[in-house]
Design brief:
This protein has about 220 residues and is α/β, with parallel strands linked by helices. The chain has eight helices and nine strands. A five-stranded mixed beta barrel has the order 2-3-6-7-9. Strands 4-5 form a two-stranded antiparallel sheet.
Length: about 220
């Protein structure tokens, strides 16, 4: 098994740098990134508020997350961790947001489907970066150099505000989509499914079944 490539990537990546990324690459980010989720999307897209940053010139990296931040007595912010949230929740806003903001890196948890990538990301030349596992908020926090600004805090609150973060070697993130719209998780799941029958070969069917249980190992039940 080959070790994944590790790549340092600017938050204002060139088209050439994006084209070099491969599914499964490990990425560390340098530069400014901003947080934007439903509150920001509604305010900027549905309410037509002016975006308080020069995008994508200042940053082309949109992080779906909730910062763990405290306000110091001088009004500055202490941010020790950033916890990613699931990006599929914001899918309906992404096409318009990417077109308006020029975002090239969408960062979050769990990824999206290849259908989403092909429909939303490919036309905008964008890539999805996923956090690696759970409980990485403090690890990602090590890559924070400072909070540059917090926009729309009064209107949206701390969790939904648009945080502008200067980062240095923030990561690890994993490349979960490419410029062709391929999906890392779908590719790896297909490999796993090929071996499911062999893994469960010889096991006995369940004697008692609760609602939603099945002996078909290819089924996925989400509660």
């Amino acid at each position: 098994m080959t070790k994944p490539r590790e790549i340092r990537l600017s938050t204002t990546p060139t088209p050439e740098a994006l084209a070099e990324l491969r599914l499964g690459d490990i990425v560390y980010l340098d530069g400014l990134l901003y947080t934007a989720r439903e509150g920001v999307y509604k305010r900027a897209l549905e309410e037509q508020a002016n975006i308080p940053m020069e995008l994508p010139g200042e940053s082309a990296a949109n992080f779906h997350c909730s910062p763990a931040a405290a306000i110091r007595s001088d009004g500055s912010f202490d941010m020790g961790a950033v916890t990613a949230t699931a990006s599929f929740r914001f899918a309906k806003w992404l096409p318009e947001w990417m077109e308006k903001s020029g975002a090239k890196l969408i960062i979050g948890k769990g990824g999206m489907s290849s259908k989403d990538y092909k429909e939303y990301f490919v036309p905008n030349g964008a890539i999805y970066l996923s956090t690696v596992g759970y409980g990485t908020g403090a690890l990602l926090g090590r890559g924070i150099e400072k909070v540059e600004a917090v926009h729309w805090r009064d209107e949206l609150g701390l969790a939904q505000a648009m945080w502008v973060i200067r980062c240095r070697r923030m990561g690890p993130f994993i490349v979960a989509s490419d410029l062709d719209g391929n999906c890392l998780f779908e590719r790896e799941n297909a490999k796993i499914v090929q071996n499911l029958d062999r893994v469960y070969e010889g096991t006995r069917p369940a004697t008692l079944k609760r609602y939603g249980e099945t002996d078909d190992r290819s089924d996925e039940v989400i509660g």
